[in-house]
Amino acid sequence: MRTLIIGGGLSGLALASALEADGHDYILVEARDRFGGRIMTERYGSGYYDMGPAWFWPGQPRIAALIAKLELEKFDQYSKGIQMVEDERGHVHRGRGFASMEGSWRLKGGLDQLTHCLAERLPAMRKRLNAHVAKLAKTDDAITAKLIDSDTVSADRVVLALPPRVAARIDFVPSLPSDAMHAMQGIATWMAGHAKALAVYDRPIWREAGLSGDAVSHIGPMVEVHDASPAEGGPFALFGFVGVPPEGRADAQVLRQNILAQLGHLFGPEASEPQKLYLKDWAFDPHTATDADAKPLYAHPTYGMPRAMTGLWDGKLHFAGTEVAPQFGGYIEGALEAAENVLKI
Ligand SMILES: Cc1cc2nc3c(=O)[nH]c(=O)nc-3n(C[C@H](O)[C@H](O)[C@H](O)COP(=O)(O)OP(=O)(O)OC[C@H]3O[C@@H](n4cnc5c(N)ncnc54)[C@H](O)[C@@H]3O)c2cc1C
């Protein structure tokens, strides 16, 4: 039985790896020109900077096991020193707030080591990049995926390892029941409406001043800032979640200027002149976000597998992806949990 896995993020890659290990017939197709999905790491000099997820936590057994299996190493989120709060009037208060991510872990080499290592180990004939599935058609014999470049891939069953809202944009023939489509569109994609800014410096100017790099701001544009430096050495970095909603972020140039000004205001004039400023706006990335994600979520929803999304197409159409994970939905741990659950079907 051939399985077509649509989506080469952590969930799709983990599922493909498990099928590979068990000697199954499968093919993994990914729309982007890289694997990893929301896991994305920029590199500058010897530094690595996570522009999607950066953290994982104690009590997440699947990530811990995967890191051990791939012989990768974790390190503690930097949180030594003074925290800051920028109030509504722009006044900066040192020694207020708390290091909200203290105790979180990061991955040496960047979180994309996870997805890079998994993808590397899959045989070339089992994985395809630049393969955006636009249509899925089911007949009695097979399910055929039509790619955007009009190539086709056929399989006996399909696993949608992508955010359900993004999957809902695929043209399903025959149509899926309306309660299934409704359920898919109703599941908010975790962090899809967010943007991350990351500034790279040759010196850790905030650490030199006794600051941890943690700041909370009530005026923005960044509402939460943390140290994002590599485990050892530089280049050093600060990153922030942009709090301005997507409609106010359309002019990236203006946003960048405002971010630089805020960094200078918080951490001193030198901080407004980083070597490099990365900005990744996930809300404008169609492989992650839909129009429905224009209102970013600020609280973690309850995820899991809605009943309406089970048993579709005679039990040949399944969902993976973190948003359907019952226990760790939204997190990278959930991406692994959801892949694991498909293996139980
Ligand atoms: C800014 C940000 C910060 C985050 N921080 C954290 C964190 O610190 N810790 C944490 O645990 N989690 C965090 N997350 C969430 C984490 O990124 C996700 O839980 C995880 O990466 C989801 O993996 P996935 O494989 O389920 O989905 P995805 O990574 O979204 O993978 C889906 C894949 O499907 C592909 N695809 C889409 N449409 C098609 C199509 N039609 N045809 C073929 N392929 C398609 C996409 O290109 C993508 O590669 C964060 C996310 C963001 C955006």
Please give the structural blueprint:
Elements: E1 2-6, H1 10-21, E2 25-29, E3 41-44, E4 47-50, H2 61-69, E5 74-76, E6 82-86, E7 92-94, E8 105-107, H3 112-120, E9 127-128, E10 133-138, E11 143-147, E12 152-155, E13 157-160, H4 164-167, E14 171-173, H5 178-186, E15 195-201, H6 205-208, E16 211-217, E17 222-227, E18 236-242, H7 252-267, E19 276-281, H8 312-315, E20 317-319, H9 332-343
Parallel strand pairs: 1-2, 1-13, 2-9, 6-16, 10-14, 13-20
Antiparallel strand pairs: 3-4, 5-8, 6-7, 10-11, 11-12, 15-18, 15-19, 16-17, 17-18
Helix pairs in contact: 1-3, 1-9
Residues 6-12, 29-32, 37-39, 52-56, 132-133, 161-163, 166, 170, 190-191, 194, 196, 282, 287-288, 321-322, 330-332, 334-335 line the site of flavin-adenine dinucleotide.
Question: Which key phrases capture this entry?
Answer:
FAD/NAD(P)-binding domain, 20 strands, Polyamine Oxidase, Chain A, domain 2, seven-stranded mixed β-sheet, 2 domains, binds flavin-adenine dinucleotide, elongated, five-stranded parallel β-sheet, alpha/beta, 345 residues
General description of the model:
α1 packs parallel to α3 (112-120) and α1 (10-21) packs parallel to α9. 23% of the residues lie in helices and 27% in strands. The chain has two domains: 1-39 and 111-188 and 300-345, FAD/NAD(P)-binding domain (3-Layer(bba) Sandwich), CATH 3.50.50.60; 43-109 and 191-299, Alpha-Beta Complex (Polyamine Oxidase, Chain A, domain 2). The chain has 345 residues and is of the alpha/beta class. α1 (10-21) links the parallel β1 (2-6) and β2. The strands form five sheets. It has a seven-stranded mixed β-sheet. The chain has a five-stranded parallel β-sheet with strand order 9-2-1-13-20. Strands 12-11-10-14 form a four-stranded mixed β-sheet, with no helix packed on it.
